[in-house]
Write a structure and sequence with these properties.
single chain, mainly beta, eight-stranded mixed β-sheet, two-stranded antiparallel ribbon, Plasmid replication, integration and excision activator
Length: about 180
C-alpha cells in the first residue's frame, strides 16, 4: 500500500497512475461528416502542410520539408473548406488534413459556379486547448483566462457529393 497526495491509502500499483491520462493527448476521435458539417462543406483549395522552419534554418538555406502523418508516415495535405453550418463568419473557414502520398484532387465544381461540395470519409477530431488568450494576472489582479477549446480535423479521403446527397463512388483521395 502507498499513500497519495491527499494522504489516502492506495494500492502500490496506482501510485504511478497519477500522471497518466485515461485519454492520451492527441487522440483522434472518429466522427461522421454530417456531425461536423451538417449543412455541407465546400472545398476552397488543397496545399501541402509544411514543417515549421526556424529563422536560423531559413538563413542557412535549408529546404523546408512537408509534414508527415505520425501514424501512417504519409505526407500531410491541408484541405481548406467552408463550413456551411458555421454560425459565425470567423468560424466558417476550416482546415481538414488528409494523409496521402500525392496531393488530393478536389471534386469538380458545380457547373457555372466555383462551388465544390465535398464529403469527408474517415473523419476524426482531435480536441486541444487554445490558450493564446490566457494571460497571467498582474499584481493584485484576478487571473482571467480566455482559453477556449479548439479542435483539428483529419480525414482519410474526400469524395464529391452525389446528387442523392451522399458521397459518390468516385474518390478524390489522391491524383
Amino acid at each position: 500500500m502507498g499513500v497519495d497526495n491527499a494522504g489516502h491509502k492506495v494500492p502500490a500499483d496506482t501510485e504511478d497512475m497519477e500522471n497518466e491520462m485515461a485519454i492520451p493527448g492527441g487522440a483522434r476521435f472518429p466522427v461522421a461528416h454530417d456531425q461536423v458539417f451538417p449543412k455541407g462543406a465546400l472545398v476552397m483549395g488543397v496545399e501541402p502542410v509544411m514543417r515549421f522552419q526556424t529563422a536560423e534554418d531559413r538563413a542557412r538555406g535549408r529546404v523546408q520539408e512537408q509534414e508527415t502523418d505520425k501514424e501512417t508516415g504519409e505526407r500531410l495535405w491541408a484541405v481548406t473548406v467552408i463550413d456551411q453550418s458555421a454560425e459565425r463568419k470567423a468560424d466558417a473557414v476550416v482546415t481538414v488534413k488528409i494523409a496521402a502520398p500525392h496531393q488530393p484532387v478536389p471534386p469538380e465544381a458545380i457547373p457555372g459556379t466555383d462551388l465544390r461540395p465535398v464529403v469527408f470519409e474517415g473523419l476524426t477530431v482531435t480536441p486541444w486547448i487554445d490558450d493564446k488568450a490566457c494571460r497571467p494576472a498582474g499584481p493584485g489582479d484576478k487571473h482571467r483566462c480566455r482559453a477556449r477549446m479548439g479542435y483539428s480535423l483529419r480525414a482519410r479521403e474526400m469524395k464529391p457529393v452525389s446528387n442523392s446527397g451522399g458521397a459518390s463512388k468516385t474518390t478524390a483521395k489522391a491524383a
